[in-house]
Amino acid sequence: MNITDVLALLISLAALFSYLNAKLVKLPTTIGLLLISLLMSIAVIVSGKLGLGLEDSARHLLASIDFNKTLMHGMLSALLFAGALHVHLDELVKQKWVVAILASLGVVTSTFMVGFTAYYLFAGMGLGIPLVYCLLFGALISPTDPIAVLGILKTVGAPKALETKIAGESLFNDGVAVVVFLVLLGFAGYGHGEGEVTVNTVLALFAQEAIGGAIFGLVVGYLVYKMLESIDNYQVELLLTLALVLGGYALAMKLHVSGPIAIVVAGLLIGNSGRRFAMSDKTRQNLDTFWELVDEVLNAILFVLIGLEVLVLAFNPEYLWAGLVMIPVTLLARFLSVGVPITLMKKHRTFTPRTIRILTWGGLRGGISIALALSLPAGTGVAREAILVITYVVVVFSILVQGLTVGKLVVRQSG
Fold first, then answer.
1. Calpha distance 320→10 (Å, rounded)
2. Across the chain, how many H-helices and E-strands are there?
3. What is the DSSP letter of 312?
4. What are the E-state strand segments in 208-365?
5. Which of 118, 258, 375, 394 has a CA positioned 20 to 30 A from the CA of residue 247?
6. Cα dihedral 101/107/108/112 (nearest 10)
7. Which positions, given as ranges, span the membrane (predicted)?
């Protein structure tokens, strides 16, 4: 199938599953789409066991879709920009230290807690996955997914300060996680400058990716802001924001700076200063409508893809058990990496009740974790297959179980 046929099929499935969810299932859109596509995938697998031949065709189709490139180099930039557009910068500045610590130190701490715990647990289960690959698993599973988190936050009515903490952390921590992931790939012998990974190279890579990405996002965001300020034509202005998202992300990746961080920074600039000073009411209204639609469509396609990915995974029973074991491990690591810094910060600032509990349970994992797992080189062999399945189990639990219950937790907090 060519790219047009694949896109047509994915959009058709997303539309059909969205209709079924709205008409029958009535779950939050992202959760409903994942559940329906997951059930359809299981039905296809069962049909294959019965000799109907659907399983091989479905797997062949999915094998033609590079999930990692589709998300990380295609959809992610638009989804991050759409999310950042509606984060109030004034609120984010108030929570800057909380967001910065959770998105950086929290991710690194969680990476090592999950990684070392996984190493000993996997060894006890007879999997024997090398430590560096366990740490890679820790890096890819530690960041909360902005796409999953922002989708849930739209429906739960969280207090503004708490929503800003969750949204701000999730928008930035995936960029940090990618840097940590790349550093660990270097230790595994698959990154840039293999065999030369030192403290200096790690710090240089972090500065280049994270700080460089933020500066690049500020520069391109400001250029587009000045262009928006100089005209009043909403069609052209929408095209400018689209060029910023797609062109800016692609250029950031070519310059080896963090595309996700660049687009988040640019989105915050356009969503705050741009909306306030560079747009007419008509442009602002059309901008919101356009990016909300892009967000909904891409989210639908993404969660359908996550559900369908079950068809191409090697579901060894040992991997499934390891995935189930890692669910409480990742939750505990999240609790500690969030709870310790917030407890220390409580001496100097006030937090809403149950903040640690909500940040822990509301820290959903999503497509970014799966995309990073799929980016592991084929040469990693059994370790790659195991990490893929374990990641998938944790992500599905996170979205279906945590995603469906975090609203009740927030409501209890608000009450």
1. 27
2. 22, 0
3. G
4. none
5. 375
6. 140
7. 32-52, 97-122, 128-150, 171-190, 202-224, 236-253, 259-277, 297-315, 321-344, 356-374, 386-411
Give a yes or no: residue 35 inside a domain.
no
What CATH code is carried by the domain that includes residue 158?
A: 1.20.1530.20
| 47: phi then psi, degrees, rounded to nearest 5 | -65, -35
Residue 32 located in a structural domain: no
Residue 16 lies in a domain: no
Number of residues in the chain: 415
For the stretch 90-147, pLDDT in tens is 888 888 888 889 888 999 999 999 999 999 999 999 888 899 899 999 999 998 876 6
Interatomic CA distance for residues 61 and 407, integer angstroms: 36
The C-alpha R_g of the chain, in whole angstroms, comes to 21
Half-sphere exposure at residue 223, Cβ-oriented, CA atoms within 13 angstroms = 11
Asked if 114 contacts 139 with a C-beta cutoff of 8 angstroms, the reply is no
As for how many domains the chain has, the answer is 1
Query: Which residue range is the domain that position 213 belongs to?
Result: 67-412
Q: 415: how many CB neighbours lie within 10 A of its CB?
A: 5
Residue 313, pLDDT above cutoff 90:
no
Terminal Cα-to-Cα distance of the chain (whole angstroms):
52
Q: How far apart, in whole angstroms, are the C-alpha atoms of residue 206 and residue 179?
A: 6
**Residue type for position 15:** A
| Run of H or E including 122 | helix 105-124
What distance in Å separates the CA atoms of residue 314 and residue 391, rounded to the nearest whole number? 12
In 3-state terms the chain splits into helix, strand, coil percentages (rounded to 5) of: 80, 0, 20
- Paired tokens of 4: 């047009």
Residue 220 lies inside a defined structural domain of this protein: yes
Alpha helices in 309-354 (DSSP H): 317-345
CA distance 396 to 113: 21
pTM over 0.90: no
pLDDT in tens, 48-81: 777 776 777 777 777 778 787 888 888 889 988 9
Closest CA to 140 of 174, 166, 169: 174
